[in-house]
TrEMBL record:
InterPro entries: DHS-like_NAD/FAD-binding_dom (IPR029035), Sirtuin (IPR003000). One of its GO terms (molecular function) is NAD+ binding. This is Uncharacterized protein. It comes from the Bacteria.
Length: 112
């Protein structure tokens, strides 16, 4: 299907729908923003991360450091605290309607 560049903005929704309908498959990706919309903290840079985890800010520990398996060796009490808190957040947050839309579109063959 050939779409003229100047026709795309005017017919964007119908063109996108046609491309999706004619596709053999679709890959959907979502960044952390979809979780933020549901109420999870925003970790954009250390400042966003440290706002959510002031104890780690005080210790000068950033996300990549605490999320590393080595953090369980270096500072196990902080690593377990971080992951325990994350688990509690994931369990307490109700996903917004965008997750329902994505779930509705997903089809996973039983042979996989």
């Amino acid at each position: 299907m050939d779409i003229a560049p100047n026709a795309w903005p005017r017919n964007a929704a119908s063109n996108a729908a046609k491309l999706i309908a004619e596709a053999d498959g679709i890959i959907l990706t979502a960044g952390a923003g979809i979780g933020v919309d549901s109420g999870l903290p925003d970790f954009r840079g250390n400042e966003g991360f440290w706002k959510a985890y002031p104890a780690l800010a005080k210790a000068g520990i950033g996300f990549t450091s605490i999320a590393s398996p080595r953090s369980f060796q270096r500072t196990p009490h902080l690593a377990w605290g971080f992951y325990s808190h994350r688990l509690a957040l994931y369990r307490s947050i109700e996903p917004h309607k965008g997750f329902d839309v994505l779930r509705h579109w997903v089809l996973i063959p039983a042979s996989i």
